[in-house]
Amino acid sequence: MGRIVAVCTSAAKGERKKNIGRGMLIANHGLEGDAHAGPWHRQVSLLAMESITKMKAKGLKVGPGDFAENLTTEGIDLVSLPVGTKLRIGDRVLAEVTQIGKQCHSRCAIYRQAGDCVMPREGIFVAILESGPVQVGDRIEVINPGAE
User: Fold this and answer.
1) Strand pairing of 18-19 and 93-100?
2) What residue ranges carry the coiled-coil annotation (predicted)?
């Protein structure tokens, strides 16, 4: 079991997100108020703090939200989760992993600064199946695929 380290949003796509501390995850939509939310398979993005720490080790001054992730997690190996895995976030939210990593079509600000970016390799995307609040400190738990 892991925990939520940051809840991040941005008003526009293609920019770093700001940690707002708490938010509402809406079924079939994503994180309320975020530019990436909508009725598609990449409603919410997750990146592990462990991945951000790797970039810090390269000398970057980065933190939660800097890779445009919505939820920064800790204590859970996100990239090992197969598509279809269900996640319980906090007490009420149910999410399903829909994509591991992504193709980076244009080099982001982080890539230009460091020559590397972890989000395309280590970020994951989920669809929200059941709505509810999310906040820093909430648990995030892996539920075996098909076992709700």
Assistant:
1) unpaired
2) none
- Say what the pLDDT of residue 109 is: 61
What is the β-pairing status of strands 30-31 and 22-26?
antiparallel
Q: Which two tokens stand for residue 59?
A: 């000398």
DSSP sequence for 22-59: EEEEETTTEETT-TT-SSSS-SEEEEEHHHHHHHHHTT
Give the single-character DSSP code of 80: G
Q: What residues have CB less than 8 Å from 134, skipping those under 6 apart? A: 4, 7, 22, 23, 24, 25, 31, 71, 89, 90, 93
pLDDT value for 144: 74
**Tell me: the pLDDT tens digits for 123-146?**
999 999 999 999 999 999 999 754
